[in-house]
Specification:
- By secondary structure, the protein is α/β, with parallel strands linked by helices.
- 27% of the residues lie in helices and 27% in strands.
- The strands form six sheets. Strands 8-7-9-10-6-11-12-13-14 form a nine-stranded mixed β-sheet, sandwiched between helices. A four-stranded mixed β-sheet has the order 15-16-18-17. Strands 2-1-3 form a three-stranded antiparallel β-sheet, with no helix packed on it.
- The longest helix has 18 residues, at 188-205.
- It starts with a strand and ends in a 6-residue tail after the last helix.
Amino acid sequence: MKSKTIFFCTECGNETPKWAGQCASCGSWNTIAEQPSYTKSKPGAAAGKKHAAKSAPRELVSLDAASEMRFLTGFKEFDRVLGGGAVLGSLVLVGGSPGIGKSTLLLQICGLMEGGVKVLYVTGEESERQLKMRAERLGVKGSGVFVLAETEMSEILSAAEAFKPDLLIIDSIQTLYNPDMNSSPGSVGQVKDCTMSLMRLSKDTGITVFLVGHVNKEGAIAGPKVLEHMVDCVLYFEGERSLNYRILRAAKNRFGSTNEIGVFEMLDTGLSEVLNPSEMLLSGRPEKTPGTCVTCVIEGTRPILAEIQALVTPSSANMPRRNSNGIEYNRAMMLLAVLQQRGGLRISGCDAYINVIGGLTIDDPAADLATILALASAYKDKPLRNDIAVFGEVGLTGELRQVSQINPRLLEIERMGFSACILPQSAKGKLQPPKGLELIHVKNIGEAIEKAMAIKPI
C-alpha cells in the first residue's frame, strides 16, 4: 500500500499537494494542515457489480417517500429545532463546547424514546460503567438502549449492520478512527473519513445517526468545515456553563427551518425544557433602572420577549470602547451612529456596552428600536416606562420601518403583562391589537425616545 502526503484546509476542506500560508479556495490564513493519505485497494468484481446495481438511476416519481418520515424524540424543544422531529435516515451533528450538555441531552433522549425504538449508543469518551452511572443520575432507565464502548470505525459499522438500530448515537466523532489511515483520532482526515462512512450507513440502511462534535476556540465544529456540508442537520448547543440556561439552534437543516431555537435549563437531574422562553429571559428584570428595554423578536415561528441592556459612560480615551454581546457588532455600531446623528445625543465621547440578557443572539432587525432606547436611557441616566415593550427596524435617517408578524408580537407582549407597545407608524394597517394593550405609533427615534421616557399617567 503506497502512501503519500496531502494537505487539507481546516476551514473549507480543500485539498492541495503542498503547504501554503493561505488557502487558495477560501482565503483563510494558517489553516493548511498536513495529512497522510493512503490509496485504498480497488473492490473486487463482485463488489463492483453490487455497487453498480445499487446505484442504478431511478425515476423521481417511482421513489418511495416513506423514508422521509419523522419520529419524535420526546423533547418538544429538540423536535421544534429539527423541524417537527428527526427524519429517518438523516445524519444530525450536535456541536457545542465541552461540558455544555451535549451528551446529557442525547442520553436523556434515549430515555424518552417510545414505541419500541432500538437505540445503539456508541461511547468513545466514557466507559460502559461511567455511562451507566450518568444514566442513573439522569433517571434514564435504558430500556431498549444498547451501549457499545468502541472507537474503531470498522467495528462500529459491523455492530450497526448486525444490530440494525433505529437510532445510532456517536459520542463523539472526534474519538473515532479508521485503522487504514495512519493519523490520530480527531485529525482532519479521520473526521472526514469517519463521517463519510456514517453518512453512507444512514443513507443505505435508513438508520438515523446523531453525532456529537466539539467546537474549537473559534466556535466552529472541530475538524474541517466540509464536515458541516456532509451532514443533513447541524445543531449548536450554546450557553455559559456558569449559567443554568442552554439554547439549541440550527445552523443547517435540510428538513426544516434554521430560525427555530430550543431553550433548556440545566438542573441537577439533567436538562429540562423551557416552554416559555419569554418568562425565563425576563426573570430578574430590574425596575426603574436606566439602560434596559424589552423587545419582541421572532425566532422561527414563535415570538420571544428579550431584554436588551446598555451602559454608556464618559470616556477619557481617544478611542472610546465599544462592546456588543448578543447583537451583531457592526449593526450595533450603526445604531450608535444613528443615535448620535439623528437622535441628537453626543455619544461619540462615551464608552458603550450592549448586552442581551440570557445569552440569546438576536438577528431580528425588530430589535433595533429597543437597542436605541436602551442606549438613550443609559446616556440620559433616565429609566424608561417599565410597562412598555417596543419593536421596529431603524433606518439610517432615524426613521422606523415596519417589521413582519406584528400581530403575534403584540399578543406575546400582552400575554407577558405589558400594558403598552411602541411600534412604527407605518404598521397602522391590518392590526388586531389585544384588549388592554395601548399602541403608541411613532415615526422616528426622536419620538420613540420621548414617548418611552414619558411618565405613565395615573
